[in-house]
Design a protein that fits this description.
Structural class: mainly beta
Strand content: 35-45%
Number of strands: 14
Oligomer: single chain
Radius of gyration: 19 Å
Number of helices: 2
Distance between the termini: 47 Å
């Protein structure tokens, strides 16, 4: 498959400032197995090095959903960790309408409904996509679900980043566009650039 002999990294990020600090890394072996030692506390597992368009679909630990994190015990061994990935392109693509010069440097935020933080996330649940000079954009490798897309000029992106959570929610409700992401397709959407 496309993943054999590809260097993948399993990343275990600390969740909510729990003990056992720092980020842990493990490289996959040729058979796609991995081993991490001395894991302690609440961690979220991520996977880097996937081919373009591939995304982490689920994280299972002993058959239980652990996508949003897992608390590892102080002692003992945890086996049965499964990272399921998909190569079926899933995301949002489209065109942004706006005043010519303002498209340069513009970005599209694609956030899960109910979330307001605009950041890159290897966990494939939110994206910041660059807008090309002709207004097109693609935010791929997203998990299926309901999202809100918002196109911002560089000045408005900076303003958005300075807003508090309630203000961001108001911007998304008033200026964002709901979009449903389905596994295996890029959902087309037309957006109006927020210029001021």
């Amino acid at each position: 498959t496309a993943l054999h002999d590809r260097p993948l990294q399993v990343v275990l990020r600390q969740v909510d400032g729990t003990v056992g600090g720092g980020t842990l890394l493990a490289s996959s072996k040729a058979d796609l197995t991995f081993e991490v030692r001395d894991v302690l506390g609440a961690r979220q597992l991520e996977l880097t090095g996937l081919p373009r368009g591939w995304w982490l679909k689920s994280v299972l630990i002993d058959g239980e959903d652990a996508f949003d994190g897992h608390t590892f015990p102080v002692t003992g061994v945890v086996e049965g960790v499964v990272l399921l990935v998909s190569g079926r392109q899933s995301g949002v693509a489209g065109r942004v309408q706006g005043t010519g010069g303002l498209l340069q440097g513009a970005s599209v935020l694609v956030l899960p409904q109910g979330q307001t933080a605009a950041m890159h996330s290897p966990q494939a649940n939110r994206r910041i996509a660059s807008v090309s000079l002709d207004g097109t954009f693609t935010a791929d490798a997203l998990r299926p679900g309901r999202y809100v897309a918002l196109a911002l000029s560089p000045a408005m992106r900076s303003a958005y980043d300075r807003l508090d959570r309630d203000e961001r929610e108001a911007w998304l409700a008033g200026r964002g566009r709901p979009v449903d992401v389905v596994e295996g397709r890029l959902t087309e959407v037309a957006l109006q650039l927020v210029e001021r």
